[in-house]
Write a structure and sequence with these properties.
Order of helices and strands: EHEHEHHEHEHEHEHHHHHH
Strand order of the largest sheet: 1-2-3-4-5-6-7
CATH architecture of the largest domain: Alpha-Beta Barrel
Number of domains: 2
Distance between the termini: 13 Å
Strand content: 5-15%
Radius of gyration: 20 Å
Helix content: 40-55%
Number of strands: 7
Largest sheet: 7 strands, parallel
Shape: globular
CATH class of the largest domain: Alpha Beta
Length: 308
Amino acid sequence: MLLDTFVTVIGSDRRNLARVAVADEEHPVGGQLMGANPDDFPPAARRLVAAGFDVIDINFGCPVKKVLGRCRGGYLLGQPETALEIVARVRDAVPPHVPVTLKMRRGLDDSPESADNFWAIFDGAFARGAAAITVHGRTVRQKYVGPSSWEFLAAVKRHAGTRVVIGSGDLFSPQACVAMLRETGVDGVSVARGAIGNPWIFSRTLALVRGEPEPPPPTLHEQRDVLREHFRLAVELHGEDRAGRSMRKFAIKYARLHPEPIAVRDAFVAVKVNADWQAVLERFYSVDGPGRDPSADVDETADCAESA
């Protein structure tokens, strides 16, 4: 599990503290930091460690306009000195047993300068103590348009040797996850947008990696149980009013696994409070049946929390 956190939100506010709360069953869990000022990172990293996070990750990959405008995320791929200062200061700020990792894209764009900056940050981060680097096969300028370059990921892994590289991009099915491992040689894969509304992608992928038959998509009752628990946790974290609004974006993703995805999506869009949520579950999930594989429904839109 990886939790995205802006360095500027970690304070004593009750809502912010709830955002970084870690439950016992979640370990190992990583907290991801994103910001512009290197001075902000060490205290934020220490706060995450104190909160129980097992890994500290640094986001140099987000391509969203509002993030780039604040000199965060993928913007730092064009600022190798600042990026490497952040890595070094986070590594120095947390105990040696806590791994520090980072997420990158293959560059701001496809220019030679961007390529040089990528390799400077990639090699420099490992030299400063990074334990692993996740690389997304698109540039920042691409955002989510066009295919992720798995050929680039393969080249990165060849260059890295024994250093740990995690691949990212276009992982919307268990088959794609296994194919990336096989075709690129990366040490692991990072599933982001492919897991939104489909947490079952992990168990189904693990089955394939182990050489077992791929489990079928979750049944309607299995989906219902997860939907109910997800909403309960959102209410616990945000309160019922805010949970109803925030959960809609997840619900429309969950709807893709239902045999009637459009009708279920439209019903979830209208949800405002817990009673509305439960009514959708009663209407569409009360009778059990087989689920639907959503892997063909690729949504090319995402926000920075989905940027892997």
